[in-house]
Amino acid sequence: MAEESVVTDLPMKRPREDEENGASAATEAMETETNSNDYISSVIPGWFSEISPMWPGEAHSLKVEKILFQGKSDYQNVMVFQSSTYGKVLVLDGVIQLTERDECAYQEMITHLPLCSIANPKKVLVIGGGDGGVIREVARYTSVEQIDICEIDKMVVDVSKKFFPDVSVGYEDPRVILHIGDGVAFLKAVPEGTYDAVIVDSSDPTGPAQELFEKPFFESIAKALRPGGVVSTQAESIWLHMNIIEDIVTNCRQIFKGSVNYAWTTVPTYPSAVYSSGLMLRGFVFFSGMIGFMLCSTEGPTVDFKHPVNPIDSNDSQSKSKPLKFYNSELHTAAFCLPSFAKKVIDSKAQS
User: Fold this and answer.
1) Can you list the domains of the chain with their CATH numbers?
2) Would you name the residues annotated as active-site residues?
3) Residue 313, Cα to own-chain centre: how many angstroms?
4) Average pLDDT value over all residues in the chain
């Protein structure tokens, strides 16, 4: 386990004249420092820039006030920093996982889209989601008797408990059982028909999360679910990853004999930001990020994901979490409305 770095103020030197010029900045946009602050932008000092081959030609940036934690686990680099506009930010291998300001848009939707679509869920499994946000949302359901969470990286759990207490509060629920280990192996060992719902809160399909997007993993999920059970899994962006989404839909249509649907939500600090080639103009950066979810059910009682049957009352909860900030029944139904280009591809794969 890596040692925590001391909380430090980031050097905020005044940009040079050529750095203030958008054209000059663009030529340096992909240059990053080679020390432990690999993703701190050298274009505008003191900015974090999310640069990845998963979204080529784009850089998503936030102004950094302080770096609160840096460590390297057995699986990935972990960083937490205080941003000037989105609160604290959790970063894994240079990719933003959550911010205090907009985490609700992801955590609430990936959880309530499946759990509001079935009556009285009792046993729920979360794969990934070490920050605790999904289990916080699952804990709102009084019908739930057991919440298993399998997270491969203990450092993510520990860091989240320290720096994101409003997110990790779900760990305090007595129904939660934490398993540190490989989610793929965990699912293979689960007896058939164990869970009412499985929620896969994975990072992008690289590194330790690669297997969570492959057909054998979905087969293990289907086996672990009861008849009419549901799965909700992170399923990338229609603007950037239609090829990945096509593969996910194809696999799920072959495996899940109930419903197969794609839904989406807006998360400002997730991919699909509008800047190209890392260009930033005088410190202003604009976001319009989105992320999708694959919602599937096994053969059995019919599940209509588009029309929730199990409303969640944010004021009647066993959990210690705060009232819902993002999810509501209108958004639930609207989440399945797709733009024409995505609808055409997804519907064709779902019906093939």
Assistant:
1) 47-97 (2.30.140.10), 102-349 (3.40.50.150)
2) 201
3) 23
4) 80
